[in-house]
Write a structure and sequence with these properties.
Helix content is 9%, strand content 35%. By secondary structure, it is mostly beta strands. The longest helix has 17 residues. Keywords: Signal.
């Protein structure tokens, strides 16, 4: 019997040695990194089919039948005369904007009683999350304006819109000199 108990003890010891150890767990982490640069880009030209950030407003004949400036209706992004709505996105929270404008000018000399300059008011409207920020430029007073937007640019269409109004000559009775008149509104949007 001693022999049987010894063989049984050896068999039990061998069985214990060959069975797998209790389960063990290991864990690890894979880190995934990436970056987004600080930038502002035109993602959609808005109303304008041209992918550039800009447009052309052709007012046609500026003069009325008596040679003075004709009445020019306010011009905005909903007008048929122009394409002044754009979609811009910025990856930073509060972009900086600068707006400047130059009056419509003709290179010809304008003696007393005549004008070679047509002034206007430009409003650059920025749709931001939760509202609208507007920077106004009046060409015969404040030719530049700008600052930091109050929030991120809204992601909807046409989040930058230019409105033009208040077209006038230095004096209401000024007769416009013949020729081509050119003015501009410039908008710069920078990440901040």
């Amino acid at each position: 019997m001693k022999y049987t108990v010894g063989a049984f003890a050896i068999a039990a010891a061998l069985a214990a040695a060959s069975s797998p150890a209790s389960a063990q767990s290991v864990s690890g982490t894979v880190t995934i990194n990436g970056t987004v640069g600080e930038k502002c880009i035109v993602t959609d030209a808005g109303d304008d089919p041209n992918p550039d950030f800009g447009g052309i407003v052709d007012l046609g004949a500026l003069d009325d039948t008596d040679g003075t400036l004709r009445t020019i209706a306010d011009i905005n992004a909903s007008s048929d005369l122009n394409n002044l709505g754009f979609r811009v996105v910025c990856t930073t929270a509060t972009p900086t904007v600068a707006v400047s404008a130059a009056p419509m000018v003709n290179a010809a000399t304008a003696p007393a009683g005549y004008a070679n300059t047509v002034h206007f008011t430009a409003d650059a409207n920025f749709s931001v999350v939760g509202g609208t920020d507007t920077y106004q430029v009046i060409t015969d007073a404040t030719a530049t304006n700008g600052g930091t937007l109050s929030n991120r640019l809204a992601t909807g269409p046409d989040n930058v819109q230019v409105d033009l109004s208040g077209f006038h000559t230095p004096a209401v009775t000024d007769v416009l000199v013949a020729g081509n008149y050119t003015g501009s509104v410039s908008i710069t949007i920078s990440p901040n």
